[in-house]
Amino acid sequence: MELNTHTDNYLGELMLNTWSNDSPPRKYLGGSEIGHVCIRYLWLKYHGYFRENFKGRILRLFNRGHREEDVFISELRKLGVDVVGEQYEVTACNGKFKGHIDGVGLNIPNQTKPHLLEFKTMNTSNFKDLQKKGVKASKPQYYAQMQVYMYLCKLDRAFFIAVNKNNDEIYTTRVKLKKREAKDLLERANMIINSSIAPEKICNKPTYYICVMCSAFDVCHDFDDSIPF
Fold first, then answer.
1. Confidence (pLDDT) at 3
2. Are 109 and 80 in contact, with CB atoms under 8 Å apart?
3. How is domain 25-36+54-195 classified at the architecture level of CATH?
């Protein structure tokens, strides 16, 4: 990236450039993305046909979400909640499907069961949509992630906790395990991992709103579906 050192913002540009995509690509399908709306996107990504290349600002934003996890845990512990199992790894599909939980909460006020904990940060627009629709309708990918993690951890309850990054308002809701939904998601993962044929496009029109914003756009719409990988 060429910097304009004649502006006062050049230092900020340098700081963002310290973030890079130099980590090796995952060799597994991630639990946080199994609920993605497009199964073809997941198949192409898992089988290495493209790699998302995030700019420094986005990588920094992802890191902010990770930093917020310590704040959530600190607040819960002040309430007397025992938080255990932070970043515990869950696996399926012979280790080719993996995820890392944010933790399990014990002794949550007014609850008798242990709960999977899922922490998220979001902007005001997404936060208001979450409040209005609930996590399943507003953020189906987060909901799917919790279903799979609960199933693999042998838990039947989760607490979804989100913070509005703009004003620190907190939203919490309990989510129940739906075993059939969790099993269907794991079957989806197994198909993505083991199938040699790309699934159908979510839409054959490249101008479809989901497609035009997708990181797999170029490879997806030019991909020869008749050739197995």
1. 55
2. yes
3. Alpha-Beta Complex (3.90)
